[in-house]
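Entry 14. Two folds queued back to back today. First construct below, sequence then structure tokens.
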Amino acid sequence: MLKLRRATVIEAEPAGAGAGAGVAAGRGVVAGAGEQRLTIELSDAPGRRRAAIADVGLVGASEAGDELVVNVQALDLGLGSGGFDVVHVNLTRGLAGEGEPGAHVMKLNYTSLQHAVVPVEEGEHAPGQPLERPVGVLGLHGQLAPVAFAFAAAAPGRRLGYVQTEGGALPGGHSRTVRELRERGLLAGHITAGAAFGGEGEAITTLGALRHALSALGWDAAVCGPGPGIVGSGSALGHGGMAALGSAHAALALGAPTLIVARMSSGDERERHRGISHHTLAVLDLLLEPVTVALPAGMRSPVGADLRAGLGSVFAGAGDAASSRPALELKVERPARLTRHDWRRASVDLPAYAATGLPASTMGRTLAQDPLFFGAALAGGGVLAEMTASVATGRKVSA
């Protein structure tokens, strides 16, 4: 059952000032409603201020003094990615919405937040020709910024866009990273697929999003993955990273050269995520066809002794915290099915990325504390750029 409470807005940032707001018109971006940050007081706890967010595209903008109904579940549970209440409805001014003109396909179906959208698949009646533009598949939203940075550095002028899937946050406006990458011109667009919503385009499926992006919109490559706040249970299959399996199969089915951006870590205290994460290993093991996987140049293997030896040589000059403490216990063995994939190496420049001011922390760890996480993502962006170059020159690209 939903945990809803009445509340009053004490302070309200301007609507659209939060993550996901529209960016400079000079880049040809349609301004979005985005996310609004609020300070509220619950009716049954006067005097105690709480943080809240409102998806302006769903519930409208709020002002100080407005009466709200908020969902308090995540903040009350103390979830790491839920340090705020979420506005369910604005009772003062949020009951006059008319919906989007012409919209007829529902998202968040049969919930109290169901709303109609115009899907990008509208008018497409055939699968079309195989796509020859590559797709990079993420397991975590935190990989998006380094992938986009490395892609732009290696392939200036080529257009990389983002397809947001399930597995993490569903609202497209919740990602400050997407907003910043769009403002800097490092992403060509943002489509939300399936249950995810609130992007610059809405797709019913990941298949439809990728087809539209790489054909109708003309992106040179797409990066596909969940929004922030990945869902997890500590089990082998019960986590948001498994969305990467469906995304990779969608790309393969469309004939797109497919890259898995490996989730790796040299600083995670959880054994299952050290070296190459069990999230990535599970996807690579379960894939029905081989794909390309990226590693930082100089790293021979993503697991075992070869990984430990490679950490010092690849990352020692980038403030690798692992180089100044006892080596991590990396007990993950190489599954036999990993050898069927196409493992490629790419040079990474951690100092250059750190100097950009783009997001440089993951799960509370900085780039210096976990250089392998960012190095693996940068390698993914570099290899994805190489794959676009191979397509552009007519050379065969491994998938």
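Second construct, same run, same settings:
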Amino acid sequence: MPIDKNSKAQAVRDYVAEHPKASAQEVVDALAEQNITIKVPYVYKVKSKSPKPKATSPKKTKSTSKSASSKQWTFPKNTLEDAIRIPKSIEEKNAGNPMRATELTKAVGFKRANDWRFLDQLRSANQYGLVSGTGKTALVRMEKLGQDIIVPASPRQRQEALLAAFNNVPDFKAVADFYGDKKIPEDEFFLNTLTREFKIPRDRVDAFSQVFLANLDYLRAFAVASKDMPTADSAKIKVGDDEATEKALVERTIAKRPHVREFLDTCFVMMPFGDWSDRYYQDIYVPAIREAGFEPIRADELFSTGSVVEQIWEQVQKAKVLLADLTGRNANVFYELGLAHAARKPVVFAAPQVEDVPFDLRHLRVIIYEVREPDWSTKLRTSVTDYLKNAFKDPEKSIPHPFRGEPED
């Protein structure tokens, strides 16, 4: 459906209000990412018709300034987990040294430095205090807080840094302090409180709620020790409360031992569920994946409610590497495997017999284990660790040929 002129004009005004120093061409490029097609002369035309602040008395000037600043986002548009990709890319691609935004944008996974998604992510990383430098031409430097998260000296240092990054956003800290260790109410009442008590604009409370609650889940996964953190429906247990964690996991009927997250990079595991599969996962795959330096995640461990397929797709996209146990040619596993290949992700295969592996995938990294061999489980653990490390270093060999290379923009 085509966008009318009034909507286009409003889109220009909104973008200019949030990016007052943006050039006309930058406005055109940014709105093009939102499927809004305009030309440079149109931007000048809208700007010329926009009302300008009147510099009369000091009182009116102050009021005008306050009105303009109220249009700025006072909280990150991205979750802490997404924002961490910025300093992590600096560490991985440039050994932690400062990078120009033009180079960093490609390291993060975008093609152009003026991509609004990259600029939002970079701005969020600044707001969390992970990096300094924002904008498409900035020199981006990783700050100490980012270093403590990406290359910590101990798990405790990472936990403290994650909590400090969350509290570095005044709005997030204020809301967390307001609720203390109490349960956050249902959506409607929570959103109303955000608007009435914390002056979050009504058109932004949904975004605030999603990012805020996602951050609580992320902190809880790392068992960040803060007894005063609030709880919510998507996070019904206190951050750092091990007994509550175990109880909640039992209530969700997950037949596995709970574990605290240790690593930033994840390995999504695709495998059948059930007694023996769950034992394999806990006793073999989890320690093997962690030995390789990744955090294991399986579909039945996802915390949030909603569409299972969407959550699986999200985890597939976030994962650095994936592990697929093809035992019995399980239909769900093959569906998730298709998503992984479509996302151009490296996958390591494991199966008790070669017949479980499709013929046209046997040239990739495949582990065949024989349960009747002595010490088969130890051998499998070692193989999984080695194969995952190799897949991370050389992902092309774990991706089918038609899916190799960069995806289309």
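Quick look at the second one. The chain has four domains: 5-69, 76-155, 169-251, 266-403. Residues 5-69 form one domain.
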